[in-house]
């Protein structure tokens, strides 16, 4: 699994500390990917809030949380996703996107 940030930073040795540090001052986008078609992504800023999306294998299974989220919420979601737990799936509302 790899975390990629808008500034070009790529982190492969992921743990909760690395994810928290990377997202703490995020102003742009971040993608946490298992592979090219399976990932969680966010964009936004601490000032304006964040959107959160995920995709599972193909564009027919792409979802977005309709709520504006805080950096703390985004961080918890990314850590849960990286740990392989499904806590992030039940912590937010999800709507299917047609891509």
Topology:
Elements: E1 2-5, E2 10-11, H1 16-24, E3 27-35, E4 38-45, E5 49-56, E6 62-69, H2 71-83, H3 87-91, E7 95-96
Antiparallel strand pairs: 1-2, 1-3, 3-4, 4-5, 5-6, 6-7
Structural summary, described in words:
By secondary structure, the protein is α+β, with helices and mostly antiparallel strands. The chain has one domain. It contains 3 helices and 7 strands. It has helices at 16-24, 71-83, 87-91; strands spanning 2-5, 10-11, 27-35, 38-45, 49-56, 62-69, 95-96. The protein has a 7-stranded antiparallel beta sheet with strand order 2-1-3-4-5-6-7, covered by helices on one side. A hairpin with a 3-residue loop joins strand 4 (38-45) and strand 5 (49-56). The longest helix has 13 residues, at 71-83. The protein starts with a strand and ends with a strand. The mean pLDDT is 95.
In summary, what is this structure?
The chain has 99 residues and is an alpha+beta fold.
> Using only CA atoms, what is the Rg?
12 Å
**Beta-strand proportion:** 35-45%
Category by helix and strand content: alpha+beta
Going across the major beta sheet, what is the strand order? 2-1-3-4-5-6-7
Low-confidence stretches: none
Domains, number: 1
General form: globular
How do the SSEs run, as a string of H and E? EEHEEEEHHE
**What would you call the quaternary organization?**
single chain
Q: What is the average per-residue confidence, as pLDDT, rounded to a whole number?
A: 95
Helix content: 25-40%
Distance N to C terminus: 24 Å
**Largest sheet at a glance?**
7 strands, antiparallel
